[in-house]
Structures are given as structure tokens and as C-alpha cells.
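To: structure desk
From: M.T.
Subject: fold request, one chain
Message: Could you run this one when you get a chance? Sequence is below, nothing fancy, just the single chain.
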Amino acid sequence: MSRRRNTVRAGVLAVVALLAASCGSPGKPVDPAPVSNAAWPQPAHVGGPDATAGGGSDTSCNPLASPAPASGTTVPDGSTMSEIKKRGKLIAGVDQTTYLFGFRNPTSGNLEGFDIDMVNAVAKAIFGSADGHVQFRAIPSSQREEVLKKHQVDIVVRTYSITCARKKEVEFSSVYYVAGQKILVTKESKAQKLSDLSGKRVCATKKSTSLAKIATDSAKPVPVSVDNWSDCLVMLQQGQVDAVSTDDTILAGMAAQDSTLEVRGEPLTQENYGIGVPKDRPDLVRYVNAVLDQIRGNGVWQDSYRRWVEARLGAASPPAPQYQ
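Reply: Done. C-alpha cells follow.
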């Protein structure tokens, strides 16, 4: 037994000796790899100004005048709506990144918001129920005209401002919402309006009327263009831009997601939202206008507004339509 104890003791002492040797002789220290200044990665496809974006300077038409509504919301045989009904799905181009208007609920995975409610109202009129009868297609703002002209969607409902330039490419419903362009900054920022951001980086999406306003503003802010509004939010949070400037509806959704941010300023523009429709589908435009007339009068518009928008932007009524 004593021989076994001596053997174990000898082994332990040998291990202790090895550890002591390794700790007592650290050797020459090695410098870590040099580290450059840390920086957040930018979102994909970040660009610069586009002064013609959205065509807001084109005054060649009355942008708010839309074709007169259909006499009702029944679906006539041989109509565009009849084709949609036979297909079983209304295909709608929407946003999935703009909280309050078009966003994906992280719990349910469903798309929700004021714009989504407008899509569902059109689908309900065609099918009797929107459930299972809508195919949502998430698109960046820069592709709104493209997907309509290629008939990849039936309608676009995506905080889509009506302009004369856009009406040369697609058709619009009557106005279903009126917004105004403001700025979003951190609460520590001294900027109160766009003119306070001279030489500062201000974010907006590509081909938007908001980007055009930034690019042509006399204060000369530096426009930064991205694919989606969520990219602007991330860049502001990471300090890569000094502000975001777009419709108060979109900015309100960003501020609701981050209590360190604040919407400021008086409206710089009036943004009239319409539902986009392919130029060669006049019966669908008139049908959509009939649906909008219906929901203005039956409380559906007001219920949606109270659910999504009122707490952030105050009480409002549906805008009165203008027809050709």
C-alpha cells in the first residue's frame, strides 16, 4: 500500500512541476492582430441622390383625379375581376418592412397594417372573404411601377404617392390616405426640420418622392438611398445617417419601434396615397374605387385607421375622392 502511495505522490509532484514550469516561463508575448476602427456593415444597395425620383415636380395633370367608380362591387362576367376570381387569388404588391402600414407580425408571421387592410377590403369584395384569397408579394418601393407594367401583380398598395409622372406608367385609384413628409432623428439631435440638416446624410428609399425632396432641397442635405425603409431605420440607429426623411406615416412606425427616435418638423409635402393598377385594366381601377367608396362609408376605413395610425398621428377622416 505504501509503495502505491509513493507512486501516486510522485506522479502528482511531476504534474505540479510541469505546471510550475509552464507558468514560470511565459515566453515572449505576442502582439494581437492589429484592429482597425470598428464600423457597422451597411445594408445592401446603398446609393446616392436621384433628383427625378417619384416625379414629384411633374405638374402636367391633376394627379388626384381617378376614373369614376363602378356602380357596385358585384363581379361582371368577362371582367378583370372575374379573371382574378377564377384564379382564386388577388395578387397584391405590398411592403413587409413598414410598421403600422405593411409589416410582418413576428408572432403570427402574417402581414398586417393599414395598407394590408386596404388589400383585404378589395379581396373581400371580389371573393366574399379575404381569407385564403390574397397572395401578397413583398416588393421594394423602386419596383412598384415595374411589377404593375409586367402584370406580376394585380394591384400595388404600398404607401404609394400619386404623381403625374407615375400616372404616365400606371393608373391609380382615388386617394385613400394623405400623409406629409417630415424628418426622423435621435432625441439628442438638434435638427428640427430638413433645413437644419445641411451637409448631413439623410436617408430615403430609391425612386421615392421623399428622396427627390431631399435631393433638391435648398439646404443641400446629402441624400442616401436604400431599397427599404427598414434599411433607413437601421442606418440611423447605427449612426450611418443623421436622419430619415419621408412620410409621417412611415416615420411614426419607426419611432414606435425605437423610443430613442423622434419625428419632427412641419409637413414638407402632401403625399396622396393611391392603389396602383396596371394602365390597361380600367375596369379594375373603377372597381377598386367602388370598394374605396364603400369602406369610406361603412366604417371599415375608420376602424383600420384607429387600429393602426390614430395613436401615433391623431384622429383623421378618409379623404374625399376626386373623379375624372
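Reply (cont.): DSSP finds eleven helices and 17 strands in the chain. Let me know if you need anything else for the meeting.
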